[in-house]
Write a structure and sequence with these properties.
single chain, mainly beta, Neuraminidase, four-stranded antiparallel β-sheet, 29 strands, globular
Length: 319
């Protein structure tokens, strides 16, 4: 990449390119760049209107990319909309609550659900919906538990599962479900341990796999959420304890976990096989890293970008 960055976002576009936005490398910035899988090269594209990191990005049904919130280091309510056809950003309505370390999910109805996050010493339980048609945010049902640095997963029935994270009480094991039809959150089964800085991946069978980040620190345990029963069961443990890693569901149904840290940046990667519930080590990345991103490309490859390894990284790798 042209700029070393962590706490950035990476979004795969309809044309196969990957859009990277914002981030932090000692200071925040508003730059964005595009990865072209055909050439393996990066080009700069339009800058966001504000520098931001620890924000969220969502790809809309029309192919545009929505970014919202974050910090610079002021906590932001602003956002922007990137149009791939022009390579430019347009401003959008502000969030009702400024936040960073939140999540954003594109729903089946085309709206974007933003949930949780943190704003200084404030931990909002609020959630909001972005309507692309009106370019505005409206409040929806509140979370039952304030949380940030949690995970979010869209289930096959359209519900949204959030789990774990942190709040003023510490690290969480609780989980809850958002029903887009009613706008209401309901609690569901809690994970067996508290988790933060971990990953959640939706499997082909509809289950959700969470891994690492026990108590917000590195661990190797993993568990599965069954949407039919609302319960969690333990599954095979990873070979390497880790947190702040990435997890990607591959086209063959396996889950690829990459990097992270357990006192130092990790270079190891491993694959989870849902049919056996076991992990196997696969090829290591060339540069150990955490706080990076992982994006699935149209050809099934996985693009790893940026992060930290004792210093901020501008390197990228393909699996």
């Amino acid at each position: 990449m042209h700029v070393a960055r962590a706490y950035h976002t990476a979004s795969t576009l309809a044309n196969g390119s990957v859009l990277v936005t914002g981030g932090y490398n000692g200071s925040s910035f508003n730059s964005a760049e595009l990865y072209n899988p055909s050439t393996g090269t990066w080009t700069t594209t339009g800058n966001m209107s504000a520098a931001r990191f620890q924000h969220a990005a969502s790809t809309l049904a029309n192919g545009s990319v929505l970014v919202a919130g974050g910090a610079n280091p002021t906590i932001l309510s602003s956002g922007g909309l990137y149009r791939p056809s022009t390579g430019t950003w347009t401003t959008i309505g502000n969030l009702n609550s400024a936040r960073h370390f939140h999540t954003a999910s594109t729903l089946s109805n085309g709206k974007v659900l933003v949930a949780g996050g943190v704003n200084g010493a404030s931990y909002p339980t609020s959630a909001e919906l972005y309507n692309p048609s009106s370019n505005t945010w409206t409040s929806t049902g509140n979370l039952n538990f304030a949380r940030y640095l949690h995970t979010v997963s869209t289930l096959t029935n359209g519900s949204v599962l959030v789990a774990g994270g942190f709040n003023s009480s510490g690290v969480l094991s609780s989980a809850e479900l958002y029903n887009p039809s009613t706008g209401i959150w309901t609690t569901t089964g809690s994970m067996s341990v508290t988790r933060g800085y971990y990953t959640a991946s939706t499997l082909a069978n509809g289950f959700v796999l969470v891994a690492g980040g026990c108590g917000g620190a590195a661990c190797n345990s993993a568990e599965l959420y069954n949407p039919s029963t609302g319960t969690w069961t333990t599954t095979g443990s990873m070979s390497v304890a880790r947190s702040q890693h990435t997890a990607s569901t591959l086209t063959n149904g396996f889950v690829l976990v990459v990097g992270g840290c357990n006192g130092a940046a990790c270079s190891s990667a491993e694959l989870y096989d849902p049919s056996t519930g076991t992990w196997t080590i696969t090829g290591s990345i060339n540069v150990a890293r955490y706080m990076h991103t992982a994006s699935i490309l149209a050809n099934g490859s996985v693009l790893i970008t940026g992060g930290n390894s004792g210093g901020y990284l501008n390197s990228a790798e393909l699996y």
